[in-house]
Write a structure and sequence with these properties.
Layout lengths: L14 H6 L10 E8 L5 E4 L2 E7 L4 H11 L3 E7 L16 H12 L4 E6 L13 E2 L2 E2 L1 H18 L3 E4 L6 H11 L8 E6 L6 H7 L19 H13 L3 E5 L5 H10 L4 E5 L1 H12 L5 H15 L3 E4 L2 H10 L4
Parallel strand pairs: 1-3, 1-4, 1-12, 4-5, 5-8, 9-10, 10-11, 11-12
Antiparallel strand pairs: 2-3, 6-7
């Protein structure tokens, strides 16, 4: 029977009241913006598969910095696009590699910008896989040794945090040991703890030129049927010394973000991947939805599930929405 003294709608009667009683509070400080740095000069090109995102050569990164500052975004995740690739992906750990150049340039332009680097090899290998091959399979242990070398090279260039995305077994422990041995005890590891072999990565592989030349990545990225295995991967990364755990992708994996938040005390990040962004862009271009509203709703869903940090191509727009009070 209806009890007319209990009326939840009372708390929805005005914008001021709705904002006051919000359960999920957000701020621009929780956002990380993925950025693509391309080797060369004079490169400032919109990425067709990711409208509104660009390839920047190091000399053009001032454009990214200006845009980030204008929207109050202060944290970026760097991906590199080298000119040359080889079987070992040796450009990934070169002192003058493209990510290393990008780190130094950003730090020169904006010393307080927090720079996180993707630690992987797929953009650098001629075959497009995330490590050293033995036949047609990725050799886990050889790859882990190289990943540790890459992480140290990023730290030497000035990276504030490293983010291994390869899904090799034991790579967090190896990277932690290598960073510590080289004097980078205070460089944290944002681990792609549960990264799935997802269909939502298509636009990124186009943007980063990282599609595998043969086969797929299901031998190392996770099967998207498995939630218990995802928590096992998270637990292993906690044991190995990860500082932040990431679930990737985001929207189709809200249940795993929630489980991760409930089980572990570390900060939880989620990556709203390229396919999630591109779907909203495509639907909005067709007039099928309100892009701004859908962007806000999708982001809040990730935080509501338990994420502390959101890696998103919408970071500038979401930061604006948070300051306006539309979310947050």
């Amino acid at each position: 029977m209806f009890n007319d003294t209990i009326r939840p709608r009372r708390l929805r009667t005005s914008p001021v009241l709705r904002q006051m009683v919000r359960e999920t509070r957000l701020s621009p400080e929780s956002l990380i913006w993925p950025v693509f740095v391309a080797e060369g000069e004079g490169i400032y090109q919109e990425i067709p598969s990711l409208p509104g995102q660009y390839h920047y050569s190091p000399d053009q990164l001032y454009r990214m910095v200006e845009r980030a500052r204008a929207h109050g975004v202060s944290r970026v995740l760097l991906f590199g696009l080298p000119k040359d690739k080889d079987e070992l992906g040796s450009g990934a750990w070169a002192a003058d590699g493209i990510v290393q150049q990008g780190i130094r340039k950003i730090k020169a332009l904006a010393p307080t910008m927090y720079v996180i680097t993707d630690v992987c090899m797929c953009e650098y290998t001629a075959h497009g896989h995330c490590g050293i091959l033995c036949g047609h399979a990725v050799d886990n242990d050889q790859t882990v040794a190289r990943l540790a070398q890459i992480a140290v090279s990023h730290a030497r260039a000035g990276a504030d945090m490293v983010a291994p995305s390869d899904m090799m077994d034991g790579r967090v422990a190896a990277i932690r040991a290598a960073l510590d041995e080289n004097g980078f005890q205070n460089v944290p590891i944002l681990s792609y703890a549960a990264k799935f072999a997802s269909s939502f990565y298509g636009p990124f592989r186009d943007a980063a030129g990282s599609a595998p030349a043969f086969g797929d990545r299901r031998g190392y990225q996770m099967d998207w049927h498995n939630s218990r295995e995802a928590m096992r991967e998270c637990a292993l990364d906690v044991q190995e010394g990860a500082d932040i755990l990431m679930i990737k992708p985001a929207l189709a994996y809200l249940d795993l973000i929630y489980q991760c938040r409930q089980r572990f005390d570390l900060p939880v990040a989620a990556y709203a991947v390229s396919g999630e962004y591109a779907m909203l862009k495509a639907a909005a271009a067709q007039g099928l939805l309100d892009e701004y509203g859908a962007m806000c709703e999708a982001a809040v869903a990730v935080f509501r599930a338990g994420a502390d940090i959101l890696i998103t191509y919408y970071a500038p727009e979401l930061a604006d929405a948070m300051r306006k009070g539309d979310i947050g």
